[in-house]
Write a structure and sequence with these properties.
The protein has helices spanning 8-16, 23-29, 43-48, 53-83, 159-172, 204-208, 219-238, 292-297, 302-317, 329-337, 351-360, 371-380, 455-460, 470-476, 496-501; strands spanning 98-99, 109-110, 116-124, 128-136, 142-150, 152-153, 156-157, 183-187, 193-197, 241-242, 251-255, 258-261, 268-269, 277-278, 285-286, 299-300, 385-388, 405-410, 417-422, 428-432, 436-438, 519-520. By secondary structure, it is α+β, with helices and mostly antiparallel strands. The chain folds into four domains: 8-73; 109-197, Phosphorylase Kinase, domain 1 (2-Layer Sandwich); 204-380 and 478-520, Transferase(Phosphotransferase) domain 1 (Transferase(Phosphotransferase), domain 1); 385-438, SH3 Domains (SH3 type barrels), CATH 2.30.30.40. Strands 1-2-8-9-5-4-3 form a seven-stranded mixed beta sheet. Helix 7 (219-238) packs antiparallel against helix 9. The protein starts with 7 loop residues before the first helix and ends in a 13-residue tail after the last strand. The chain binds adenosine monophosphate. Residues 122-125, 130, 146, 148, 181, 196-199, 202-203, 249, 252, 262-263 line the site of adenosine monophosphate.
Length: 533
């Protein structure tokens, strides 16, 4: 729990000179809330609250130092005060770190500058760099952490970046969920540092795209990650928060089987009765992950997060491919809206799961499932597990040995051949249904239906929300990353090739409109205009 942010400076100052016990009397009896209020405090007043003269001298000295350093540090307190949600005051126990708001348990605190040492660089984000670190607690124990430091230019921190950084802190310090990255505390130094739970295995995107000999992630594990993600997002949804940057790059692996939602820099509280957040300015947005209403009007809501969940699902089952790779932003919106095109079903993704993704991509936000409903839908689309009851060596069939764990991707009681993944080899393919026993089928060969979406329904939607036009749309879909684009150029407005190689504001760039991590500014050329933030 944060002491009132406006009086944080006082608490820090008193703690530094071992006079924290006078925090409340100074605040409440002498009414000092700002450093200049001490100008009106007389020694007798301090005598009156029981502060001895040597302590008063220490205080005067510390105040002098504080005031001289205030000019350079003032922005931290001011801005954090501006972003912090409702705060109540507490008096910290002597010798404990100052606590940040702690609504649902867990330690959140202001961490002294010297208590964290930074090590290896883990990555860099929009407004800073992230290092592995070691946080030494007051009791002497060391905790491995990740430390995100605010990037500081020669003139000090850049306004927007500082704002986003502090907004991220103020949002994160109120979150507590097993699949949401935890903020341990904040170092009010220069640079400002966020001390977070370490996700030692890095981002899910990096794991998905890791090359051999790293084995691919099994389908069953991807489904588990989806369930964890839906749970975390249902939690944010219930708290009226919209993430706005849901993607595998922002899911971190805390352990081989645990993901955590991270990067709360774009998170916003949903305002108003419509439960939407409308961007107030031209800022980069992760275009290929965004719902049409976000691209067109800058409107974000839990329903647009659900859209992004669908894209994240697609990324997971595509081995970390970039959605709409190589397609200029304005074309994405056109394809989504006018042509009703959708990302195609990845081979590893069952029809049932793809049908769920298509529900996330419903054109109208109100038609998309909520995250809590998605949790139920995921349960229904869960791929059954079984194990192999005889060696399969037939040519063309998925090779398996007796006892191999098998995840069923497609299968129905009336088909003799099923599709699945061998949990031992990670290979995917078709195999005789009779070779596998389902885990919950009491030991007899599998005969129950294993997907709840009819094959016809799944296929009909592939690549399009418009079943009849699905096949035509598939031809228009972007190629995999690294391949030459094969999009119908006659359909591109305003010379897409030109726009591709020379995006506005990036003369001569060959990277199209895409910035780092698939972010780009809204397309000015025949594309949607977003209001200013
Ligand atoms: P961000 O600024 O949050 O986008 O983080 C930039 C990069 O740093 C991420 O893509 C991760 O690779 C890495 N990173 C961020 N936070 C953590 C963490 N808590 N544990 C491990 N790596 C992290």
């Amino acid at each position: 729990m944060l002491p009132e942010v406006g009086s944080l400076w006082l608490l820090r100052l008193l703690r530094d000179i071992q006079l924290a016990q006078f925090y409340r009397p100074i605040l409440e009896e002498l009414n000092v809330t700002r450093p200049e209020h001490f100008d009106f405090v007389r020694p007798e007043d301090l005598d009156g609250i029981g502060m001895g003269r040597p302590a008063q001298r220490r205080l005067a000295e510390a105040l002098k130092k504080h005031r001289s350093g205030l000019k350079s540090k003032n922005w931290v307190y001011k801005i954090l005060g501006g972003f912090a949600p409702e705060q109540k005051e507490t008096t910290p126990a002597p010798n404990s770190p100052l606590s940040l708001p702690e609504p649902e348990g867990g330690l959140k605190c202001l961490i002294p500058d010297g208590a964290v040492c930074r090590g290896e660089l883990l990555g860099s984000g929009c407004f800073g760099v992230v290092h592995r670190g070691l946080w030494t607690l007051p009791g002497g124990q060391s905790v491995p952490v990740a430390v995100k430091s605010l990037r500081v230019g020669p003139e000090g921190p850049v306004g927007t970046e500082l704002g986003d950084f502090l907004r991220e802190v103020s949002i994160m310090m109120n979150l507590e969920h097993p699949h949401v990255l935890r903020l341990h505390g904040l170092v009010l130094g220069q640079p400002l540092q966020m001390v977070m739970e370490l996700a030692p295995l890095g981002s899910l995107h990096a794991r998905l795209t890791a090359r051999a000999p790293t084995p691919p992630l099994p389908v069953a594990l991807l489904c588990l990650f989806l369930r964890q993600l839906a749970g975390a997002m249902a939690y944010l949804e219930a708290r009226g928060l919209v993430h706005r940057d849901l993607a595998t790059r922002n899911l971190l692996l805390a352990s081989p089987r645990t993901i955590k939602v991270a990067d709360f820099g774009l998170v916003r509280p949903l305002g108003g009765a419509r439960g939407r957040y409308v961007m107030g300015g031209p800022r980069p947005i992760p275009y290929a992950w965004c719902a049409p209403e976000s691209l067109r009007q800058g409107a974000f809501s839990s329903a647009s997060d659900v859209w992004m969940f669908g894209v994240t699902l697609w990324e997971m089952f595509s081995g970390g491919e970039e959605p709409w790779a190589g397609v200029p932003p304005y074309l994405i919106l056109q394809w989504l809206e006018q042509d009703q095109a959708r990302l195609p079903r990845p081979p590893l993704c069952s029809r049932a799961l793809y049908a769920l993704a298509l529900r996330c991509w419903a054109p109208h936000p109100a038609d998309r499932p909520s995250f809590s409903y998605l949790e139920e839908l995921l349960q229904e689309a869960w791929p059954p597990e079984g194990h192999c009851v005889r060696d399969v060596t037939e040519p063309g069939a998925l090779r398996m040995q007796t006892g191999d764990p098998i995840t069923i991707i497609e299968g129905s009681p009336d088909s003799a051949a099923w599709k699945g993944q061998n949990g031992r080899t990670f290979k995917v393919g078709s195999f005789p249904a009779s070779a596998v026993t389902l885990a919950d089928a009491g030991g007899s060969p599998a005969t129950r239906p294993v997907h709840r979406v009819s094959p016809a329904q799944g296929e009909r939607h592939q690549g399009s929300v418009d079943g009849d036009r699905g096949k035509a749309k598939l031809r228009d879909l972007p190629p995999a990353r690294g391949q030459r684009r094969n999009v119908p150029l006659q359909r591109m407005k305003g010379g897409a090739e030109r726009a591709w190689s020379h995006p506005p504001g990036v003369p001569g760039s060959t990277e199209g409109h895409w910035g780092r991590r698939g972010f780009c500014h809204p397309e000015p050329q025949g594309g949607p205009a977003l209001p200013s933030e």
